[in-house]
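Technical note accompanying the year-one report. For the benefit of new consortium partners, we illustrate the data format agreed upon in the data management plan: each record pairs a sequence with a structure-token string. No post-processing was applied to the example shown here.
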Amino acid sequence: MISLREIVVSLYGAYRLAWMDVKAAAYFENTDQAFWRSFFAAVLVLPFYGLILMAKYSGDADMSHPFRFVTVEIIAYVVAWVAFPLMMVSVARLLKREDKYFGFICAYNWASVLQNAVYLPIAYMMLMGIQAAAPLGLIILICLMIYTWFIAKTLLEIDGIAAAGIVFMDLLISILVTTYADVLIIRT
């Protein structure tokens, strides 16, 4: 069971990482127990993601039946939270950073709460048709990629090029999961 203290400390660590503080790595335990507890971040993000899904569904007449929509989106949400950590097992082994894996995923998961807090309002504005949100969304996406790059570089103690490869893999997984889910929910 995760404690409120651990949630607050982990979110504060993610906040410090956003300010490019290399010492923020100390806020994340590098244990398998902390790894599993860090997935509580998905629970914190879920209500806000649910709002985005409601806006997405109500704004598109081509969406499938509500049950299918919800089912596909829930599965996609779980896959999105699990796919990257699964891929990182092999990447960490390849980079000879298995000993840093748990701490990295902890930081990555808790940072996702902050990333979603920043990005989801922009995504909501884009779904509502606010044109000015698109360029802002692109700028924020780039900033979030830099944030993820810094987390990978710092927590895994790797060079910038390897960290960039991890960010690219993360982005690719996200695009694949989102695109496939979107294909499944469009009415045929």
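Partners are asked to follow this layout when depositing records. The mean pLDDT is 93.
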